[in-house]
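@here heads up, posting the sequence + SMILES for the pyridoxal-5'-phosphate run so it's all in one place. Ping me if the SMILES looks off, I pulled it from an old spreadsheet.
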Amino acid sequence: MKRHAGAVLSSITIDKSADRKISIQLYMALRDLLLTGALTPGDRLPATRTLAQEIGVSRTTVIDAVDRLISEGLLEARVGAGTFVSEALNARLAPRPSRDVSDAVPITPRLSHATRHAIPDFVLRTRLPHKSQAFVTALPALDAFPMAQWAKLSARHWRKDRDDITGYGDPFGYMPLRRAIARQLNASRGIKCDPQQIFITNGAQRAFSLVGGMLVNPGEPVWFENPGAIGARNAFVAIGANPVAVRVDAEGLSVEDGLAKAPHFRLAFVTPSHQQPLGHVMSLSRRLALLKAADEADAMVVEDDYDGEFYYGDQPPPTLKSIDTHGRVIYVGTFSKSLFPALRLGFVLVPEGLLESVERVCLTWLSGVPTVTQAIVAEFMDEGMFATHIRTMRQLYRDRHDTLMGEAASLAGDIDLQPTSSGFHAVGLLSADLSEDKVVAAAAARGITTVPLSRYALSRISQRGIVLGFGSCAREEIRKGVEVLKSVLPECRAG
Ligand SMILES: Cc1ncc(COP(=O)(O)O)c(C=O)c1O
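bot reply: prediction finished. Complex structure tokens:
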């Protein structure tokens, strides 16, 4: 015998004060009852007039909702007999659970081997505040960004009738931006390359996972600086790479240590211009040794040049790519530091030997970056605003760095700030009696953000310290931040 759906339908409630139209609310409520199995195929709905009275809405509203469900095939009207729950619904419903629907437990999908193994090894990145605050790392001087110029360029792009920025973009990246980057690399980073070798990515982070996935098989050893960049390492761990913790000293990554631990490495990930996070510049002899080791192991090297433009001296540190004669180095850049991180814009400079494969990947499945963003950045670079901005920021970061070093002199002996030659973060090494976790927690309780150095470690490191970002902090914030650090020291001593 067919059931009558009246009892179930009387549970529907409509909120007449809500923004959503009443007929939509009714349609959604009916749809839920149908799709959760509360109404079953063959059930007959009451007449629309009866239903309208029961729910307290107009008949037209009911007719609207019911018509829509008929057009979707969830209900069916039988001439002279009324409206019924469609038999076709059987195919859309999972077999009915024996228990009440409200008891249903959602399933936990099985993860791939790679993800299951990677998850315990992922190191959490600190969730940073969006706004400027001492001593947030990774944030550039957003207070000094030429937003008026940016807004003008941006508006100009949207006003133009330009199919090239509104249609599907070039999967390799917007050519004027690729050209502008090639020119910039040549002028300021000593790298000669063809724009065709540059591929635009969603930040440097996407470039790491792209090349990692293309070059490294699960289980193959990848050298990482220890301590080193967290996000990049996670990207390689995610594809199943076997991370090898390689010691870092004042000359950068120790090739000798890498060779002792994994001579047959597949890839090395390095930050030669400004070691993340310790701040050292890799020496020339180490660079040559790394390239030689890569040649001998037939390995590739990823060079992450995330803030190399912001050097304080007269000469920028050279890039590894500029001395790569064998096409072993894959150079990755980002606009997260030079412009701002929300752009999610980076790029990878691919050696000739890898070009065809990367082109194939981009053409077939990797979707690109919003073209309008690329077009604005390209114009920003072509009109000279980028170079001016970098020059201004270089001076600003040097000032902020000097302010921090000057203020932090009063912490010496407890927190020893390590000199750095570029970028906008510095490491403060802690004295033996100070606990990293306590300093970080006590400073955070007073509104000061720092990152424990151990967060960057892949395996135990001998130093203990905190990482301080100063890019987005005005002089007064830096001064107050140092005061806070000084004030929390007594409560952070071990014991
Ligand atoms: C070492 C390192 N490389 C690269 C980046 C930039 O990554 P993305 O371009 O994805 O923002 C960061 C960001 O903080 C970083 O710390």
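MO: DSSP finds 18 helices and 14 strands in the chain.
MO: One more: The first helix runs from residue 6 to 9.
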